[in-house]
Amino acid sequence: MPASEARLTVHGPARRISDRLVEVDAEGLSYRELNRLLRSLDRKHVEKVRLVNVQGQRYIGAGLLHVKEVEVHGTAGNDLGCFMNGPTITVYGNVQDGCGNTMNGGSIIVHGSAGDILGYSMRDGRIFVKGDVGYRAGIHMKEYRNHKPLIVVGGSAGDFLGEYMAGGLLVLLGLNTSEGHEAKYVGTGMHGGAMYIHGEVKHMGAEVEKTDLNQEDRRMLETIVKEFCGYFHLDYPQVAGREYYKVKPKSTRPYGDLYAY
Q: Is the separation of the CB atoms in 70 and 46 below 8 Å?
């Protein structure tokens, strides 16, 4: 047997679909069992894993080194893609809290909605959510040199969107609302990065301000929207043609007067 086929020999709830694809039936598996199996496939250099019947298992995609693509069919549990460095995870369903927690790279594409603290402390990578997100999406996002994380939300967000953002980009497209967003305290403590929003929000933090888009903003937003529409088969001209505004911090050190030095 060729070495490549030997590496792809799988057992139990996993079955080989092709030389590059392994399918795993997650029904009845605990999150520990499922992630142990994923790490085993990763060590065998499997390129793509399809997970079916996912029912809230946590930490999917954490620590993968060789798998390039993960498909999730079902509802992914907390901390999907946490500390992730490079794979693309596509979820055909919803994700629970902490998706993209401290993510370092790669992409997460969610065809449903997401829970709270989406992208918590993201350092790089890209998250696209077709539907809505919960509270504190983008909290503590940060950037360094060429590492600039991105979150794009198709619908609405809960309170404290972009709380304590230190860098990166957060885009709220508002495709499912014509009357604005109920989110309160948007941008509270924000001291870096930027948000692009369609639709009025209920309340913004005192640390941020709204501005119109300049040409550079528009070019960048058009590129982001085009990528988003491609994932979810949406009408790009219609989405890109809507009015957006920019939310940015007033200061890079909003609480400086509270410190001793």
A: no
